[in-house]
Amino acid sequence: MSKDKQFRLPGYQQYSAAERPNSHGSMILLRATIPRSEVEPVHCGDGVEAQAVRIHLANDSLVVYIIYKPPTKRLEAGELLTQATQELVLIAGDFNAHHPTINPTTTMNQDGHHLVELLTDVSEKTLINTGEPTHILRGALDFTFVSTELVPVAQWEVDGELTSDHFATTTTLRMELLPPPPRPPPR
């Protein structure tokens, strides 16, 4: 699809950087019936594309991020991943990061080292990939991180049919299974 064509899916609200110069076409699609508000994404590095949407839940909210980091750009994900210490977050995207810890079939690059350091330092964030390749050349470049408290209600899978040079991934969060937030102490 050329960049001058608008992608539309009836019944869904689209959030994308397609109208920005040098955009790579990443987008978030949410059902139109889901209460939400657009969020100004944190800076993830010069030339790194990021979109964010806050989904309003019954007792909380969830911030959904989509990231595309071109191979020639540097990732600055510290602020992004530490956001999980303050609120529920799902972060997905093509990070072009390589490290044996997150992809056993690859050698390390600077962005992979940066991500693994952050995962070690920020225990409130968990990588939920299963280890399945997300790229047709068998590598894992696409990662999905969630706030650690969401891990029990998260399911991640690769769709082997929806593909370009990357396979589509699906993340399902069964929020109804999440225990309610703790009550404040009595006054």
UniProtKB/TrEMBL annotation:
Gene3D superfamilies: Endonuclease/exonuclease/phosphatase
Pfam family, one: Exo_endo_phos_2
Gene Ontology molecular function: endonuclease activity
Domain Endonuclease/exonuclease/phosphatase: 64-168
InterPro entries for the chain: Endo/exonu/phosph_ase_sf, Endo/exonuclease/phosphatase
Domain of life: Eukaryota
Transmembrane segments: none
Coiled-coil annotated residue ranges, if any: none
Keywords from the named record: Endonuclease, Hydrolase, Nuclease
Record protein name field: Putative Endonuclease-reverse transcriptase-containing protein 7
Organism, as annotated: Homarus americanus (American lobster)
